[in-house]
Amino acid sequence: MAPDSTRRSEKSRRAIYAAALALVGEIGYPRTTIEGIAARAGVGKQTIYRWWSSKAEVLMEAFVDLGAQAAEAAGGDWAEEDGIPDTGDLEADLKTVLRATVDELNDPRYEAPARALAAEGVGNPAFAKEFVAMLLMPSLELYVRRLRAAQGAGQVRTEVDPYIARDLFVSPLAQRWLQGTGPLDHAYANKLVEYALYGIAPR
Amino acid sequence: MAPDSTRRSEKSRRAIYAAALALVGEIGYPRTTIEGIAARAGVGKQTIYRWWSSKAEVLMEAFVDLGAQAAEAAGGDWAEEDGIPDTGDLEADLKTVLRATVDELNDPRYEAPARALAAEGVGNPAFAKEFVAMLLMPSLELYVRRLRAAQGAGQVRTEVDPYIARDLFVSPLAQRWLQGTGPLDHAYANKLVEYALYGIAPR
Questions:
Q1: Judged by CB atoms within 8 Å, which residues 152-171 of A form the interface with B?
Q2: A30 vs A36: CA distance, rounded Å
Q3: How do residues B157-201 score in pLDDT, each as one tens digit?
Q4: Which residue, A107, B145, B154, B186, has fewest beta-carbon neighbours within 10 Å?
């Protein structure tokens, strides 16, 4: 492909992502259509169908792209595609990632579309299955991998199930974001990591 | 009030609760109306307005009643209005309550209406605020109270913030239920309590 055409494609792609995220945030997932996304992005419907087969696919990629942009904007401190860092200091590594996740959840560009998608998922288990598998599970798997490495390094007890331990870190953020049960900030992220690693009972 | 009229009222009230829960599960919160609930319950609209001022109020009370029924059906093992038991054994007490919560979340009578309400809450922060305050916060407060008692008894470190510690127990259940990120059963509830109390790092 010639460089000019590549640039043009990249611009259309970004415009389509932005249109899809804006629409789903404004009118919800059920009322968002490929036609609506095309009109808002100022491209033909066929341009979208050339790259994607469904609105679900467009949205999924738009979210992945948004996550990458958010990570870049945060100064490259941490990006999901790098996995969870392994500096040997499990507590510090988990705190870094949880604080970055708090920032992403509080990012206004993310808020409305993510909330619309999450609402659709909560009310529609078939949809949830697909989106949770595509958007949420890969991030959750990063925690499992990091916890397994920590087990190898003797920093997490070997009999701990990493799929359950993972939830101690990610679920509290998810619930505060989904249901507004309390403030979602860096101090919260740090405390969660400490309590989950060392327990709340006296040691 | 004469006994006959009390019985009749109680029957109408239960029919209205059942109609409200069924409708919200079938067509979602936004399309559920007082008129629809009245028609389904076989009562006049005025009967509903005599007792409640909005569909939100009807639904809230219907959920509280459903919780009480579920607790009764479970053989009175644990009912939310009793608070979290304090037998002196924090681990056992939390496990009892978390297992009962898992049973309630998996109860098919609860599933559809609760999911419809939760979806509305996730997508509509103003609505969420009201419902979280009325339905979720009182249960969450029970954990805070029990954790404070445990701090008094030397079973939880005094510097632990009970509002954050609470989330280690309740948020994982909430996320598995809301987003289907893993199995939600008694074994899960038990492990969560153990990890949160004693930590996942070697002691």
A1: 154-157, 160-161, 163-165, 167-168, 170-171
A2: 12
A3: 999 999 999 999 999 999 999 888 999 999 999 999 999 999 999
A4: B154
Whether B188 maps to a domain, the answer reads yes
The chain B residue lying nearest A184, using CA atoms, is B164
CATH code at position B100: 1.10.357.10
CB atoms closer than 10 angstroms to residue A82 = 11
> What total number of domains does chain B contain?
1
Q: Domain residues for B123?
A: 57-198
Residue B51, pLDDT score: 92
Beta strands per DSSP E along chain B: none
Cα gap A196→B168, rounded to integer Å: 8
Tens of pLDDT, residues A137-177: 988 999 999 999 999 999 999 999 999 999 999 999 999 99
Chain A, window 118-137: residues with a beta carbon less than 8 angstroms from a chain B beta carbon: 118-125, 128-129, 132, 136-137
pLDDT bracket for residue B56 (50, 70, 90) = confident
Average pLDDT, chain A: 89
Q: In the 8-state DSSP scheme, what is residue B152?
A: H
Amino acid letter for position A27? I
